[in-house]
Design a protein that fits this description.
8-stranded mixed sheet, 5-stranded antiparallel sheet, 33 helices, 15% strand
Length: 1396
């Protein structure tokens, strides 16, 4: 029997019975599956069926009571071949890359093999009749309904009878799905591991009604899914008892689970009606089991159907503030998954992100209810910041369309849930929050309530059918439902939902959702958009944020024009190539739908009134956008009897006057108090808005939005403090007031403390340290003394602020990077003299842990012995008086390791720390969290002393010992031997310890790679671009081949899916590759474009041939620099000289043309210049090709990281056209035969500037705009600068003819440049004959390059001398043949006039 040809049956219901012996660590069982036999055409005689049965020993298989032959597929182990391990590599990086590439496919093959059924058997033909109910199953809930479908017809025809498959199995030891620890047993389904304790069809699309009987010892209790129906004695001696559970709804096997142990029922809680969703709880009962953490594989617990499994650390302790908050959030997370995951399910694997996002949204609503709206807003902002840091453009999308995958778990085989960074889950919740912001809270909540109501209606219909209302009809309905669910799962694959679906079944809308428990992405989005009248925005939204990848980065600055009463806002959008692609396709989708997607909302807080002015700015996929925002001017009120002051000219502010004003007051000429972009978080973009310090301080002090305050603190922390005499600087004073104001949200105050720690003055000293010390001493020290008083925590907000202040003090640094002596003495005094008041409302363990952890941030040589003595004292204290979660002890161990890693402790002291960590790790009576902290400290010590590779080797040795000690096997494939040291056995504290070790090692390797990348970037900057062009990213960790082989062997360890995936992640990190199975397909752009329907009739047509397409922008500076009216970068921009070339063609009509225009723009935070793309329009309005954007002035890491605007009218198919090569933008495609012979026209506008700042000029140089050549700064006037006018070089080559003579010189030789001196101002015309016709393979080339003056008598600002080798052509194009007999070239040069 072949597992590949076996069919997975359509299961209607399944009953299972297990006997679990925790003393012997074994279990046995049997199960009966009521399946629909396949039709004869598909069977082809004897039908071969298969079940997933991972690592179980099957004794017998029966079909309708008759024994049938079966076969178990053994697990396949795969090792690295000799061709990979024995090859000769020129560097360790090449070796790691080869191993990582092979392991990528090896891991994928392993996952593909796991989707095949392990147990295969043949159904007899014909099927024997169903036997009478056996005594063993007559008393069960499943056996009572065995006869229901005996005479019913299966859905879709088939054999007309129901088959009952009975499987008997046993497992002598712990399996991958059921683990033992002392007297406890627990199932863990991981990813496709429900079949490791129950033979079943283990796919997420399965919809089966389960009943479960669990037999355990009489002194134990079995907690299972669903509702407990009854319990009975299993033997006459009453040594065993059986618990019978039944699930009231159909679900997938991955939502089943149970636990057995010496448990006791504490209380029964009634779950009231969920007011948020407007519906009752979907299940009649809910069990919560709190187990020892040694038994759990993960830290978050399990959310099963009607069952929550959490660690004992999640038992709420009312006096422990942090622990109680974390426990409540964990319980809310498990409850949310009962709604979205158990009740409402994903229609396809591509819709799993929506279920994950909605469950995260429901968890956030619980947090908002119990902790307030500000807490929710701040948490969402923090999660967005984490996404911006983690998503570099290489992460997979939320739903990977276009990736072929036969797995029912999706294109990534469910591994996105095993990501240690949790990026997929966090981003899914953030995208759902964006939908809520767009629709409004009330509308979104109502829409989700409609989805839940439809699911509850479908559940009621399902329960009515299962109750036997008309036995035959009920059986037929159930079979049809199961077959339909199986069809949905089989069709999921990579196709996903139909693009741009009009809506769900029933028409969608309010209350129009048809009863269904399946939810797909486009139905949900379209119904929501239809209810809110923004349905046309949903397709671009899905393309960019659901099916697209990457996070755009937006840098912005503005300048206020007093005479125009307008605020000019400049936006520059950059990002990875994947983000650029998603933005372009989303813009095309918006055009096809006729929507205004891609709008960025800008709000301006003006001085008049307390209202905000909203200004929509269309950004889309544009690289650079300038917008003019109207502002209400300030009208000065005249007072009788007083002469009005003379109105100052725009831009004549004085620094002394700003110091006399308050931070929040606007200047007389500037009514703008502050500006914000995307305040509601409707876009998942990393926005950096540059504002003056005065505006940031006003936003922090006067805004009541916690996100606005957090953004202002983030920008203030990046500034350098400048002295302002006696008064504190504006930004420092604003941070001080925020920290001391108890009415401010506590998280904002914590951020203010951390920002104060990062402030530096002109000498590099910690400017915020005195403010931090004064605040803490005033709150927790005796007045007038340096002795801390007894701490009694009564206000949770002050408790968190105190922790932040202590941590901020430890992060303050001197100019040389050491900790100030004042901060060091303060920290040691606080910890030495710390005392707790008895009878305080809350525990202070978090503050003590923060003090211990802060000692690890100290950088002060010679003080290590004192700090280690303090930490050991509190470590011993925590071993006796255990803090919640062992927070104090964990902080002590990690602080010790940090002190040794930073060099504060010598080698002898580091040895003592290693002994302490080993002693804690080997103490079985200590909590698991403390022992895990000791393991993490040991890895950090190994990395600091011997390098990251030593830490990785230590982690692998520990993981191997844990696998050997647990006796695990890879599904019957035998235990692994990866350590290379069989005698070195490390005693691990918990089942999750091997994965914990590899996760810590992955964090160390990631940090090493980041350091290596920073060093490489600095070297590339120093050596220049040429040295870094062909550089290969070097890994931060040089791992020998033996370590790589050990990691590769872990890919066969199927007993712990998380451990296996972390081994794969480590292999990719060692090779500096994306740590994910996702690799973008070559047709990624086509797959995204296929999501969009044909352009609507109202779409913008393509530009006609010959019409110039302006891709550039212009910037109005408002009359010169204005230091007090806006950012300095925005005020420094100036108009650039322009060279306009007009090359008419020989024919009067039908000329092709291209325009590449640009002008100077504000320098935004010193980042790379923004550029637009260029496209060529052919005859008949056809489309050209986008020129690849490359810029010679950018470092290699920044190449290709720039956006290009999407011009949708140019996307239609068109005849080939001549290709253009813009200076430094990449090579164009050669002209095709169809294009040769056509006329040529070009209209090129180029603006010149400099990337390098020009301190000798009165204005900073602007960065080069679109299609420009970057020239060095103009030299200062002096003897070295000789006089010479400007020069333009013309080159005509490719035809073998001599270039004609210009008005001021003879003809140049063939192929040689022709140079002409010209003065600024008058136009110079060239009349010449073009070269004769050339073959298509050797077209003539016309190149135009801009040169600056070599030795001007009167220097021309903005045009500088450059060597001949550095002169890059502004534009060049093949000259088609035949061409005109003559052409004219008119040049006009305008110099830059610096602003006054």
């Amino acid at each position: 029997m072949n597992a590949h040809s076996a069919l997975l049956p359509s299961v209607k219901r399944q009953h299972a019975s297990l006997r679990i012996d925790t003393a012997a660590q074994s279990f046995t069982g049997w199960t009966e599956l009521h399946v629909v036999p396949p039709p004869p055409a598909a069977a082809g005689g004897a039908a071969t069926l298969g079940l997933h049965c991972y690592g179980l020993a099957v004794q017998a298989v029966h079909a309708n009571g008759a024994a049938v032959p079966f076969e178990l597929q053994p697990a396949v182990r795969e090792e690295l071949p000799e061709s990979v391990t024995g090859a000769a590599y020129d560097s360790p990086g090449r070796a790691a890359g080869a191993v990582a590439e092979y392991c990528l496919y090896m891991y994928e093959r392993q996952l593909q093999r796991e989707r095949q059924p392990e147990l295969t058997f043949q159904l007899p033909d014909p099927l024997p009749p169903l036997p009478a109910a056996t005594p063993e199953s007559a008393g069960t809930a499943g056996g009572s309904r065995q006869q229901d479908g005996r005479d019913g017809k299966a859905a879709g025809g088939g054999r007309g009878k129901e088959a009952v498959i009975r499987v008997e199995w046993s497992c002598p030891g712990g399996s991958a799905g059921l683990r033992f620890w002392q007297g406890y047993a627990l199932t863990d389904n991981q990813v496709r591991r429900a079949s490791a304790w129950l033979p079943c069809v283990d796919v997420p699309s399965a919809s089966v009604r389960f009943t479960l009987d669990v037999t355990c010892r009489a002194d134990q209790m079995a907690v299972g899914p669903g509702q407990l129906q009854r319990q009975r004695w299993a033997d006459p001696e009453r040594r065993w008892r059986t618990f019978c559970y039944e699930l009231p709804l159909s679900c997938a096997p991955c939502h089943l689970g149970l636990t057995v142990g010496p448990l006791a029922a504490e209380a029964t809680t009634h779950v009231p009606k969920q007011a948020l969703l407007g519906a009752r709880f979907p299940l009649p009962a809910m069990q919560q089991a709190f187990l020892p953490p040694e038994l759990l594989l993960g830290q978050e617990g399990q959310a099963l159907a009607g069952l929550q499994v959490l660690g004992t650390s999640h038992l709420i302790q009312p006096r422990a503030i942090e622990q109680s908050i974390a426990a409540r959030c964990a319980i809310a997370r498990c409850l949310a998954r009962q709604w979205f995951g158990v009740l409402v399910r994903a229609a396809t694997p591509l819709d799993e992100w929506l279920i994950e996002g909605l469950s995260g949204w429901l968890e956030e609503q619980c947090a908002k209810r119990y902790m307030g709206r500000n807490e929710l807003a701040y948490r969402r902002w923090r999660e967005r910041q984490a996404i911006f840091l983690a998503d570099t453009g290489e992460a997979p999308p939320l739903a990977a369309r276009g990736v072929p995958s036969p797995s029912p778990w999706g294109p990534l085989y469910g591994t996105e849930r095993l990501d240690p960074a949790r990026l997929w889950s966090t981003k899914a919740t953030a995208v759902v929050a964006m939908l809520e912001k767009r629709a409004g809270e009330d509308l979104f909540r109502k829409h989700v309530g409609n989805v839940v109501a439809a699911a509850l209606a479908a559940l009621a219909a399902e329960q009515a059918a299962a109750a036997g209302a008309g036995e035959g009809a009920a059986a037929g309905t159930g079979a049809a439902s199961a077959a339909a669910a199986g069809a949905v799962g089989a069709a999921s694959g990579a196709a996903g939902p139909s693009p741009l679906k009009a809506g769900g079944p029933g028409g969608g809308g309010e209350g129009g959702v048809a009863p269904t428990r399946l939810l797909d992405t486009m139905t949900f989005l379209n119904d929501l958009g239809r209810a809110g009248s923004f349905r046309k925005e949903m397709a671009p939204f899905a393309v960019r944020w659901v099916y697209g990848r990457g996070v755009p980065r937006i840098a912005a600055a503005f300048i206020y024009h007093g005479r125009l009463s307008a605020l000019e806002l400049a936006l520059k959008q950059t990002g990875s190539e994947s983000a650029k692609l998603a933005a372009d396709v989303a813009q095309r989708a918006a055009v096809a739908e006729g929507s205004n997607a891609g709008i960025v909302k800008a709000i301006v807080r003006e001085a008049e009134g307390d209202q905000y002015a909203d200004h929509p700015v269309h950004l889309g996929g544009e690289a650079f956008v300038l917008a003019e925002l109207k502002v209400t001017p300030v009208v000065e009120k005249k007072q009788p009897g007083r002469r009005g002051k003379k109105r100052k000219a725009e831009g004549e502010g004085e620094e002394g006057e700003e110091a006399d004003e308050t931070a929040g007051a606007p200047q007389p000429e500037n009514p703008v108090r502050w500006v914000r972009l995307d305040p509601a978080g409707e876009l998942l973009c990393d926005i950096r808005l540059l504002q003056p310090e005065r505006m940031l301080a006003a936003q922090l002090l006067h805004s009541r939005d916690v996100v606005a305050q957090a953004e202002a603190i983030q920008r203030l922390g990046e500034l350098r403090v400048t002295s302002e005499g006696v008064r504190l600087p504006v930004g420092l004073e604003a941070l001080r007031k925020t920290l001391a104001d108890r009415t401010v949200f506590y998280s904002v105050r914590c951020d203010a403390a951390m920002a104060l720690a990062g402030l530096r003055d002109e000498q590099g000293q910690a400017a915020g340290l005195p403010v931090l010390l004064d605040f803490y001493r005033g709150a927790y020290f005796h007045p007038g003394s340096d002795a801390p008083r007894t701490v009694a925590i009564a206000d949770p907000s002050e408790y968190f602020v105190a922790q932040a202040v202590v941590t901020a003090v430890s992060l303050c640094r001197e100019a040389d990077g050491t900790t100030p002596i004042d901060a060091l003495l303060f920290l040691s005094t606080c910890l030495n003299d710390y005392s707790t008041a008895s009878g305080a409302p809350f525990s202070d363990y978090g503050l003590v842990a923060a003090m211990c952890a802060s000692l690890g941030n100290v950088r002060f040589e010679g003080f290590g012995d004192t700090l280690l003595t303090l930490l050991e004292k509190f470590l011993e204290r925590d071993a006796v008086l255990i803090s919640p979660g062992s927070a104090v002890g964990c902080a002590c161990l990690l602080a010790m390791a940090a002190l040794c890693a930073s060099g504060t402790c010598d080698e002898e002291q580091a040895g003592k720390v290693a002994v302490t960590a080993r002693r804690v790790r080997k103490s079985p009576g200590l909590p698991v969290a403390l022992r895990h902290a000791a393991m993490a400290a040991a890895l950090q010590l190994a990395a600091a002393q011997r390098g990251p590779a030593a830490a990785l080797q230590l982690a692998l040795a520990g993981a191997a010992s844990g696998l050997h000690s647990s006796g695990s096997s890879s599904g019957g494939g035998g235990s692994s031997s990866i350590s290379g040291q069989p005698g070195a056995v490390v005693e691990l504290p918990a089942a999750s310890s091997p994965a914990f070790l590899l996760e810590e090692a992955a964090a160390i390797v990631t940090a090493a790679n980041a350091d290596s990348a920073a060093t490489a970037a600095a070297s590339a900057t120093a050596l220049g671009e040429a040295a870094a062009q062909g550089a290969v990213p070097s890994p931060g960790v040089v791992a020998p081949m033996q370590l790589l082989q050990q990691l590769a062997s872990l890919l066969n360890e199927g007993s712990d899916c998380r451990l296996r995936h972390l081994a794969f992640v480590l292999l990719q990190l060692l090779a500096v590759q994306p740590p994910t199975l996702y690799r973008p397909p070559p047709t990624e752009a086509d797959d995204l474009a296929a999501f969009i329907a044909a352009p609507a009739a109202g779409a913008a047509p393509a530009a006609p041939a010959g019409q110039a397409l302006s891709m550039g922008v212009t910037h109005r500076t408002g009359g010169g620099p204005q230091p007090s009216q806006g950012t300095a970068a925005a005020a420094a921009a100036a108009a650039a000289p322009r060279i306009r070339l007009q090359l008419p063609t020989g024919r009067p009509a039908g000329a092709r043309s291209i325009a590449i225009s640009g002008a100077s723009r504000p320098a935004l935070s010193g980042e790379d210049p923004a550029m637009s793309d260029a496209r060529v329009a052919g005859e008949g309005g056809g489309a050209g090709e986008t020129v690849e954007q490359q810029f010679p002035g950018l470092p290699p890491a920044a190449q290709g990281q720039l956006f290009s605007p999407a011009r949708h009218g140019l996307e239609a198919a068109a005849p080939a056209v001549p290709a253009f090569d813009l200076a430094g933008f990449g090579q164009g495609e050669p002209a095709s035969a169809a294009a040769v012979g056509g006329p040529l026209g070009a209209d090129i506008v180029a603006a010149f500037g400099s990337v390098v700042p020009l301190p000798q000029l009165p204005m900073p140089a602007a960065e080069p705009a679109v299609g420009t050549a970057a020239l060095p700064p103009a030299p200062a006037p002096g003897p070295a600068a000789a006089a010479a006018p400007g020069r333009v070089r013309l080159k005509v080559a490719g035809a073998g003819q001599q270039a004609p003579a210009g008005p001021a010189g003879p003809a140049a030789p063939a192929g040689q440049p022709m140079q002409q001196q010209l003065a600024a101002g008058p136009a110079v015309e060239y009349a010449a004959a073009p070269p004769p016709a050339a073959a298509a393979a050797d077209p003539a080339v016309l190149a135009v390059a801009a040169w600056g003056p070599q030795a001007p008598a009167a220097p021309m600002p903005g045009l500088a001398a450059i060597p001949q080798a550095a002169a890059a052509p502004v534009a060049q194009a093949p000259v088609p043949a035949p061409a005109a007999k003559s052409f004219k070239l008119k040049l006009k040069v305008k110099p830059v006039v610096p602003p006054r």
